[in-house]
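Incident log, structure service

09:12 report received: a user says their structure output differs between two submissions of the same chain.
09:20 pulled the input from the user's history:
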Amino acid sequence: MSRKEGYLTKEGLKVKNWKKRWFVLGNETLSYYGSHKSLKKVLGVIRLEEVSEVSQIFTKKKDWCLQIITKRRVYYVVADNKQHMEDWKSIIDYQCAQGKIQGEGE
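09:34 re-ran on a clean worker, output below:
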């Protein structure tokens, strides 16, 4: 099991503003919270089995932006720097691949 936690800035679904959120990556989900102190109230959950692609996108307004495409929605999250973005992309890709491998064996 790989686990990663940390702050990323996420674009809102309806109001297209950007808010800093605490993200927690587990085996099957990428969950986000208002802060690392409010882990009892989950604001959203991305099921890794629904992720079809994770890619870096380049925008004029945001550096180090990842696009996470799922069956239901496209998420945009921004890391503080290139290394954090690459770390998050790598581990999300890894967890998604692990889930697909395990799903094939069932």
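09:41 both user submissions now match this output. Likely a transient worker issue. Closing.
09:42 reviewer note: Helices lie at 82-105. The two ends are 18 Å apart (CA to CA).
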